[in-house]
User: Which sequence fits this backbone?
């Protein structure tokens, strides 16, 4: 069908043998008739749906000999019979495509294969400059595509290396079927621009550019005097959907300037529509809460699992509270130690002040005694000199003469 398999070109995607072998594998590996499980994954399928799939005649008639024609106006093209691929837009087509790509999974624990429709991404961890695991995974993916009559588009395949180490090392080129894979600094992954240093300025600028282009249509509709509810609906469908695309993955690490750029678009739309609109931060918070609720709901499908989940949450909460109490206790001990040390320092300071005071008092006392003695001796010497008394003692006379001379 036209428009199918834009990246994976195939000549015999879903043949009779592949479908029957895949369905047989799901059935033979199931532990009981009520649960069907694949050998390479623990995901299960609905038993009633599997019973429908095991109608070989219906499946074979659905996949083979399908007539197709194209109508343009009143003109109808000739009919062409197709025996490959699955009808586009059919409810069963995603299930059949998932069944075909079910075995495409990572073999190494350091790698991860992300599959979304016809896009495949290999994420590998390079530890100690050892790229063997990642390269082997790419080669295995290439071999799997070749074995299933699929071809990788090397021209659209890009390689991005995220390295936060100080010592940067050069990585050799990756080859797929003899063609080198281009190493880029940024790439677009499911509508989001990824940069090698994990900054989101490029993604923010791309989003703001698209939103600015769509603001033109909001202005035109506002000039046409459309009511605010219709303008709000148009804004949410054309602008807010772009601003909130994968917002839970990138908005948390955006810079303040990037957030202001996005918020400026919301404020411009508010002035045009004249209605209060949720800010970009509120949208991010709402989406995060919704995502967390969906994860918790998927993680607890049964009542027993719900109780276990609540028990884990309770234990984790108690553990977090005990860690908080222990941290507070440690902080109080640290404060008490600092207080004790300061008291000790203050006591030492007080003692030194007391010693200094005693020393000063002793100095003043000695000076007072010395001055008093000198004054007494001077008075005595003056009395002796005035009355012409001479002391013949050789030990006292020089001292008295010295004191008299100093005075």
Assistant:
């Amino acid at each position: 069908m036209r428009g199918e398999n834009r990246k994976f070109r195939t000549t015999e995607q879903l043949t009779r043998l592949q479908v029957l072998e895949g369905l047989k594998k799901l059935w033979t590996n199931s532990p009981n008739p009520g649960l069907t499980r694949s050998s390479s994954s623990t995901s299960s399928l609905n038993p009633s749906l599997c019973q429908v799939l095991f109608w070989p005649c219906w499946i074979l008639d659905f996949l083979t000999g399908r007539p197709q024609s194209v109508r343009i106006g009143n003109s109808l093209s000739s009919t062409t019979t197709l025996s490959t691929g699955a009808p586009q837009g059919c409810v069963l087509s995603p299930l059949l495509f998932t069944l075909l790509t079910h075995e495409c999974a990572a073999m190494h624990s350091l790698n991860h294969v992300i599959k979304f429709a016809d896009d495949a991404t290999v994420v590998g961890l390079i530890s100690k400059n050892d790229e063997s695991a990642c390269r082997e995974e790419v080669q295995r993916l290439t071999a799997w595509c070749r074995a299933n009559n699929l071809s990788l588009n090397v021209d659209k395949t890009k390689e991005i290396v995220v390295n936060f180490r100080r010592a940067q090392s050069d990585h050799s080129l990756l080859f797929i079927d003899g063609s080198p894979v281009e190493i880029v600094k940024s790439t677009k992954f499911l509508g989001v621009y990824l940069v090698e240093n994990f900054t989101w300025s490029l993604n923010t600028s791309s989003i703001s550019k698209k939103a600015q282009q769509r603001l033109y249509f909001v202005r035109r509709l506002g000039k046409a005097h459309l009511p605010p509810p219709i303008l709000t609906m148009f804004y949410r469908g054309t602008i807010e959907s772009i601003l909130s695309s994968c917002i839970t993955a990138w908005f948390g690490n955006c810079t303040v300037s990037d957030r202001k750029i996005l918020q400026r678009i919301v404020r411009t739309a508010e002035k045009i529509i004249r209605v209060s609109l949720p800010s970009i931060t509120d949208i991010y918070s709402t989406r995060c809460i919704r995502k967390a609720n969906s994860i918790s709901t998927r993680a607890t499908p049964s009542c027993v699992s719900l109780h276990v989940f609540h028990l884990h949450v309770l234990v984790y909460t108690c553990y977090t509270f005990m860690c908080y109490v222990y941290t507070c206790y440690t902080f109080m001990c640290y404060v008490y130690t600092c207080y004790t040390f300061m008291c000790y320092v203050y006591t030492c300071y007080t003692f030194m002040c007391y010693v200094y005071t005693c020393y000063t008092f002793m100095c003043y006392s000695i000076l007072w005694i010395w001055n008093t003695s000198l004054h007494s001796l001077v008075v005595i010497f003056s009395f002796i000199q005035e009355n012409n008394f001479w002391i013949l003692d050789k030990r006292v006379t020089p001292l008295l003469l010295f004191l008299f001379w100093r005075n």
User: Anything to note?
Assistant: The longest strand covers residues 111-116.
